[in-house]
Design goal:
- The structure holds two protein chains of two kinds.
- Chain A is of the alpha/beta class.
- Chain A has a domain at 1-74 and 186-247: P-loop containing nucleotide triphosphate hydrolases (Rossmann fold, 3-Layer(aba) Sandwich), CATH 3.40.50.300.
- Helices cover 40% and strands 25% of the residues of chain A.
- In chain A, helix 3 packs parallel to helix 6.
- Helices cover 74% and strands 2% of the residues of chain B.
- Chain B has helices spanning 2-32, 39-57, 61-82, 93-120, 144-166, 168-178, 180-185, 190-216, 222-237, 242-263, 270-282; strands at residues 135-137, 140-142.
- In chain B, strands 1-2 form a two-stranded antiparallel ribbon.
- In chain B, helix 1 (2-32) runs antiparallel to helix 10, helix 2 (39-57) packs across helix 4 and helix 2 crosses helix 8 (190-216).
- The model of chain B has no long low-confidence stretch (mean pLDDT 91).
- The chains are: A alpha/beta, B mainly alpha.
Chain lengths: 247, 296
């Protein structure tokens, strides 16, 4: 459904992505892992159109979308939920959600989408008239994910949905993400919480120095020491060498 | 006491004009992070367009107002698209363009003044609108033109509020003003909204021009004095805040009127700045100072 080939890009004169490639099949949940500064968020922003890639291609449902304006990409059914739980504090929960349906003409469709979001996140329904500036971290994250769902996208990209949230809240949110995927959503999820991401995902990619370093089915990656080490630097092979422990 | 109230009424009426201009300034700032120094000239162009429509098309004052406001809004959008937007080519949008954009505003102000001078000449032109007899409020004979100012300004502010609070477009505008990236990711055509915000800001300035024109005559330099006072009004109320712009405008109008009535009429222009300095010392962010924005 989504295919990225040899993506190169960055900010100003700083190159962050050095030829990253990945694929997400329809209905799949894919995790994108990697330490800080490896290019995860940059990759998502290049896909959603917030930054323009310098070279390489991004194809969504057979159509090239690299270089398109972000709102046009939303209209094509691909939505990004940024990290940082960015909502509009001066707007109510419901206004924030309705903004997510900006591209939807049909009032009835918007209404149904709103009901669906409220079934996924009942707390939001209770607090629908509350200003989003007064919400807790977990509730804000729900607003952001809910807002992403309002345009009934075919694929959603989540940037670190667990960041800065208490473990129980993370569990709740991941359970809901799981529900959403069971209803047919395709998901690409950037995460620092490797364990939770790989429990939820079917396939994973690890990005390092702006390229994909390791990839594979989630069950294999969970047990792959190289995944953990890539966050710290090094691989299993040279760790044993530098620690002087031979197999 | 009667004298005080008369002065306040007059001050509120003129204050509504400052409020409209300040509203345009703050709206443009909240949407484009741009302090638009050519806004006074937009006000002037609006007045001239209104005058031309009224004199040569022979239409009534209300259609003149509406048409002049819309036309000037379109002129504003053209200026934004053809000139200011080019300065954002380096990337980062209006926020990053910063000082260059401000200087461009100064330049545009000079250009617009000279264009107006070429078209209409240097003389102050009368804008004779048959308003009718003044309204009697106690001892005060309030000119009908002042009543029109207050009524029109209130209607425009009401409509603006309705737009911003009750429509999807208004929601999109508020989103763009606060965080352009998230607005983009919600499917909003941000460049289009930016043009719309700029156009509405200019339209408000033009409305003020068409409302004042009949009182003070219409001439090429009429924008300069008003811009500085509207700027002071906007800052007093909290630059970027829409309710603040209205509050600031009314305060400047009233303080100015009271100053002229009780202290001295000769240095009438100074009172706005005394107020400004006072507010900046006590609460620099302005009375209804805005929340921190996400620069995007």
């Amino acid at each position: 459904m989504l295919e990225i080939k040899d993506l190169v890009g960055g900010y100003g004169s700083v190159q962050v992505l050095n030829g990253a490639s990945l694929k997400v099949a329809r209905g799949q949940i894919v995790a994108l892992l990697g330490g800080n500064g490896t290019g995860k968020s940059t990759l998502l922003k290049a896909i959603s159109g917030l930054i323009k890639p310098w070279s390489g291609s991004i194809t969504f449902d057979g159509e090239r979308i690299d270089g398109l304006r972000p709102d046009l990409i939303v209209r094509r059914g691909l939505v990004q939920v940024t990290q940082g739980k960015e909502a509009f504090p001066g707007m109510t929960v419901e206004e924030n959600l309705k903004l997510g349906a900006f591209v939807v003409r049909d009032r009835a469709k918007t209404s149904r989408a709103l009901d669906r979001v409220y079934t996924y996140f009942p707390i939001l329904k209770e607090r629908r008239q509350q200003l989003s500036g007064t919400l807790s971290g977990g509730q804000l994250q729900m607003v952001c994910i809910g807002r992403g769902l309002m345009s009934s996208p075919r694929m959603i990209m989540l940037d670190e949905p667990s960041s800065a949230l208490a473990p129980q809240v993370v569990l709740d949110i991941f359970r809901t993400i799981h529900r959403i995927t069971q209803d047919g959503m395709t998901v690409l999820m950037v995460e620092q919480n490797v364990r939770m991401a790989l429990l939820l995902a079917e396939y994973g990619y690890v990005i390092k120095d702006g390229v994909i370093h390791i990839e594979g089915p989630a069950e294999k990656l969970i047990h792959d020491d190289n995944v953990r080490l890539s966050y710290l630097g090094g691989t299993v092979a040279n760790r044993e060498a530098s620690l002087g422990t031979g197999a | 006491m009667g004298y005080f109230i008369d002065l306040v009424i007059i001050g509120l009426s003129i204050g509504m004009v400052y409020a409209l201009v300040a509203l345009g300034l703050s709206l443009i700032y909240s949407g484009l992070d741009l302090v638009h120094f050519a806004h006074g000239e937009i006000y002037m162009i609006g007045a001239f367009i209104g005058l031309m429509l009224f004199r040569h098309l022979g239409i009534g004052y209300v259609p003149t107002l509406l048409l002049a406001v819309v036309l000037t809004g379109i002129v504003g959008v053209l200026i934004e698209r053809l000139f200011y937007r080019r300065l954002t080519r380096a990337g980062g949008g209006y926020t990053v363009a910063g000082m260059g954009m401000i200087i461009a505003g100064f330049g545009m102000s000079i250009v617009l003044q000279n264009v107006a001078y070429l078209i209409w000449g240097p003389k102050a032109l009368p804008f004779p609108v048959p308003y009718g007899r003044p309204v009697e409020i106690g001892n005060l004979a309030l000119p009908m033109s002042y009543v029109w100012i207050v009524a029109t300004a209130l209607i425009l502010m009401f409509v603006l509020n309705l737009l911003l609070k009750k429509t999807m477009i208004g929601l999109a505008i508020r989103a763009v003003a606060h965080n352009k990236d998230i607005a983009y990711l919600s499917g909003v055509n941000v460049p289009l909204m930016i043009s719309l915000i700029f156009g509405i800001g200019c339209a408000l300035g033009a409305a003020a021009g068409v409302l004042i024109g009949p009182i003070n005559y219409v001439q090429v330099l009429m924008g300069t004095g008003v811009l500085i006072k509207a700027f002071a009004a906007a800052v007093v109320g909290g630059f970027g805040s829409l309710p603040g712009a209205v509050l600031g405008g009314l305060l400047v109008g009233v303080i100015e009127s009271l100053g002229a009535g009780y202290v001295s009429g000769t240095y009438k222009d100074i009172y706005a700045f005394v107020l400004l300095i006072f507010v900046l010392m006590v609460k620099p962010s302005g009375i209804l100072g805005v929340e921190a924005k996400v620069k995007a």
